[in-house]
Amino acid sequence: MEIVFWLGRILFGGFFAINGLNHLLKVNQLAPYAASKKVPAPRVAVIATGLLLLAGGLAVLTGLYVRIGLWLLVLFLVLVTPWMHNFWTVQDPMQRMGEQVNFLKNIGLLGAVLLLLYFWS
């Protein structure tokens, strides 16, 4: 079962680390979307959220400061999910569906992070 733990750790931590790198490497592409969602200082916000994702993901991957990293992921998911994926305000049905999928994905990820916080003592 130890292999399952390591595989899960790589996949879960890697998901957040890769997304964090994506934020940092594609600030110019992501900032306009953040601006369209009325995020103040969208460029700074993209960089800050990228750092949260990267730090949290690397903590899970490496096993260093895992609880702190998990709390960074909670912070990211709690702040970003309702702001960026507020599907209930979107009129276009296709856009609404996309935002709802991302909202629910983030809620599921938040649940997983909270479970890890409980079990990671």
From TrEMBL:
Keyword Transmembrane helix annotated: yes
UniProtKB keywords: Membrane, Transmembrane, Transmembrane helix
Coiled coil, from the record: none
Membrane topology note: Multi-pass membrane protein
Major localization class: membrane
This protein's GO CC annotations: membrane
Regions crossing the membrane: 6-25, 45-64, 70-90, 102-120
Source organism superkingdom: Bacteria
Subcellular locations according to the entry: Membrane
InterPro entries reported in the protein's UniProt record: DoxX (IPR032808)
Pfam family for this entry, one: DoxX
Name used for this protein in its record: Uncharacterized membrane protein YphA, DoxX/SURF4 family
Organism of provenance: Rhodothermus profundi
